[in-house]
Design goal:
Blueprint lengths: L2 H24 L5 H31 L12 H23 L4 H8 L2 H12 L7 H19 L8 H26 L7 H23 L3 H5 L3 H27 L2 H5 L3 H15 L5 H18 L20
Length: 319
Amino acid sequence: MRPVDFFKVLLATLLWGTAFPFVKLGLQYSDPIGFAGLRFTFAGILLLVASLVWKVIRSRDKGEKTIYPPLPALWRSVALIGLLSTAIFYGMFFLGMARTSGASGALIDSASPIINSIMAHFVLHNDRIDRRKAMAILLAFGGIAIIAAGRPHGVASQSTSIIGCLFILGGLVVSSAGTMLVINYKGGLGLVRLTGSQQLFGGLLLLAVAALTENQRHWASLADWRFLIIVLWLALVSAVAFRIWYGIVRRYKVTSVAVYWFLIGIWGAGLSVIILGEPLTLNHGVGFSLVVAALVLMYRGKENASRVTATIPQQPVIS
């Protein structure tokens, strides 16, 4: 990998890493579902506007007319992916982050490619779980269990933290199902427009759920410049980091890039220590080491025949 592209990987993972402490900060001003809805509504709009501007510029340079596929023919795919990859995943993720520390959430999120490999076994015919992958999966879940077993700083109880970690892990499973839909997507939208559309749909759906289940504190909090900056930053992270990562994945085999996913955990945990003052525990160190070992074992010297596009985040992914 060229140094400039490795720098882009570092930048994308750093941007996603900032999401974990910023989500924790934002939860001081808003309930989880409404907060997630605001973030991804704005993120979807940013991606769609950027995609439109880029399409117009390219069309003018080539002297072509910009033609978009009709939305009615695509809404089912966009809605289903948005339901899984944004509404349910990030609803569960924000609920989980409200119950555990930023560092714990970041370190568990590092296992996202492992979750994707399990889902691919059941969905993709050419990506079966072999002995090497099975060992990686066991290592990753062992690491997650160790992280979840600790009691993070600022969390009411150990049981509360475990519930939060389970929310995040469950969200990763749902997100992985959404990613399988993206891999098999045959519609007319490019990946950037598809991601923007599904994030906008998922964000609006989260806001609708929040209107029925929460106290609407997120709307009032937008008047506070601190919360507004947090929401806009997280929306920008979702749009910019995805665009950088997508550009890298188009240039290199996804398996050669996916192993760097653990950097999100390092950035997220480190920034949670710096910004939130969270201490790192022995559970964090041991658990994360097992997750990193699982990622190295999963992608060591072998190419996954599944077109491991599953590791392209629809947020991770990330965040």
